[in-house]
Amino acid sequence: MAVPKRKKSKSRIRMRKAHLKQPMPSATPCPKCGEPRLAHRVCPACGSYNGRQVLIKASDED
Ligand SMILES: [Zn+2]
To answer: Quick check: is 6 in a domain?
Structure first.
């Protein structure tokens, strides 16, 4: 089994880990209500997707 020849320095480990950060999810404002919404997801605020209502909110039933 291959074994590392030298101990990895804190600096080397940190330089490697610097690339592992999660990218920010791309949130764009909802065209209907303007709330920030993830792309290709139903808007959590108004429940619309692609210009039509797909979720019925409890407050919108009446
Ligand atoms: Zn919305």
So the answer is: no
